[in-house]
């Protein structure tokens, strides 16, 4: 008889993961893992990041700002809260594709870093942290691989989490409002964020699908499980990439694997996954600042703010400092039945 994750005792699963060749728990003490197993987090949110000083600064800025909200489970509060935030790293070229000693030191201090057994792709463009644009094919496909590993790992490590989410490291989240909204949503089928349209064939509007933009993506557990189990995507991401070969771009773009956010919507489109509930955010609540296609000003309604400069995390933390679960009200989403593209069966939206 094969045990499912739910049936494996915490210590046995911890040893299993350590001995499986995966580095993901190599810096996480057993007592931390045991505490995670005892909790029932509403949402586990992964922040993809990089083993480099500039990105370490971004992680520290997030820890010092929105990760301090009541409701965020951290080492300081013995991981008590609805939202667990974990920073997810791959081995970086600047460190010779081995994890730097700083990763172990950071994890020893915060117990919130997962080190995946994978190499990050090397950037080939001039994109900078906090800016829009792309890092180049190798880096973008590497990000998509990291995305799939992150979702698969979250499913395995946190079998009781209702939602699995992702946010960038240049993002600020008003956690009390985010959690209030999440508590008001269904537990199954949810695909929440800035919903955008994509044409698999340029100019052919008879084929269209919808995806949630990568600043912040939240999915119900059942949706993540279906994406993680989609065999064509898994095979593509497991295959080697020769970034010097132009044909490789077409091969990986066949499932939009050069865009980690578009890729998720494409997988749902290709598998014709039924019963998706698109929870559609607008730029009055989920938006970019300074640059990006969702650019808007920060207001009292902002929930997720993207493309921050380093000094702006603290400014937003100060601006929204007095918020808690007692001071916010969940957004009233209007349910609109009917398909969105070929996969959605319902839409939740609102008027700004």
Write the layout of secondary structure elements.
Elements: H1 10-18, H2 30-38, E1 43-48, H3 53-63, E2 72-73, E3 83-91, H4 101-110, E4 113-119, H5 137-157, E5 163-167, E6 171-173, H6 175-183, E7 190-193, E8 195-198, E9 209-212, E10 216-220, H7 221-228, H8 231-238, H9 246-253, H10 260-271, E11 276-280, E12 286-288, E13 304-306, H11 312-319, E14 334-340, E15 344-349
Parallel strand pairs: 1-3, 1-5, 2-3, 3-4, 7-11, 11-15, 12-13
Antiparallel strand pairs: 5-10, 6-13, 7-10, 8-9, 14-15
InterPro entries: Glyco_trans_31 (IPR002659)
Membrane topology: Single-pass type II membrane protein
EC number: 2.4.1.-
Strand content: 15-25%
CATH homologous superfamily caption? Spore Coat Polysaccharide Biosynthesis Protein SpsA, Chain A
Q: Helix coverage percent of residues? A: 25-40%
First-to-last CA distance = 53 Å
Q: Figure out the total of helices.
A: 11
The second-level CATH architecture is Alpha-Beta Complex
The radius of gyration computed from the alpha-carbon positions, rounded to a whole number of angstroms, is 19 Å
Write down how many β-strands occur, each being a DSSP E stretch of 2 or more residues.
15
CATH class: Alpha Beta
Mean pLDDT score? 85
Number of domains: 1
């Amino acid at each position: 008889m094969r045990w499912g994750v739910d049936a494996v005792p915490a210590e046995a699963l911890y040893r299993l993961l350590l001995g499986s060749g995966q580095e993901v728990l190599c810096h996480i003490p057993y007592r931390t893992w045991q505490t995670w197993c005892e909790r029932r987090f509403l949402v586990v949110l992964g922040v993809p990041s990089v083993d480099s000083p500039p990105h370490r600064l971004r992680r520290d800025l997030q820890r010092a700002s929105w990760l301090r909200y009541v409701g965020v489970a951290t080492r300081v509060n013995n991981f008590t809260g609805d939202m667990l935030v974990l920073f997810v790293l791959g081995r970086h070229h600047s460190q010779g594709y081995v994890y730097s000693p700083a990763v172990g030191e950071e994890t020893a201090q915060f117990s919130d870093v997962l080190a995946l057994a994978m190499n990050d792709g090397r950037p080939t463009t001039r994109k900078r942290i906090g800016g829009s644009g792309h890092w180049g094919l190798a880096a973008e496909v590497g990000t998509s691989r990291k995305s799939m590993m992150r979702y698969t790992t979250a499913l395995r490590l946190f079998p009781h989490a209702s939602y699995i989410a992702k946010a960038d490291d240049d993002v600020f989240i008003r956690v009390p409002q985010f959690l209030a909204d999440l508590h008001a949503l269904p537990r199954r089928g949810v695909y929440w964020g800035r919903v955008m349209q994509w044409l698999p064939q340029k100019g052919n509007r008879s084929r269209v699908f919808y995806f949630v933009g990568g600043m912040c993506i939240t999915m119900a557990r059942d949706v993540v499980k279906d994406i993680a189990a989609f065999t064509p995507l898994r095979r593509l991401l497991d295959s080697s990439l020769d970034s010097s070969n132009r044909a490789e771009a077409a091969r990986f773009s066949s499932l939009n694997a050069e865009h980690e956010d578009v890729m998720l919507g494409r997988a749902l489109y290709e598998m014709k996954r039924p019963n998706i509930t698109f929870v559609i955010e607008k730029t009055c609540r989920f938006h970019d600042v300074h640059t990006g296609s969702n650019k808007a000003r920060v207001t009292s309604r902002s929930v997720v703010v993207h493309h921050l400069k380093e000094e702006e995390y603290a400014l937003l933390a100060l601006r929204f400092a007095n918020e808690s679960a007692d001071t916010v009200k969940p957004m009233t989403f209007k349910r609109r039945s009917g398909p969105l593209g070929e996969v959605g069966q319902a839409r939740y939206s609102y008027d700004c």
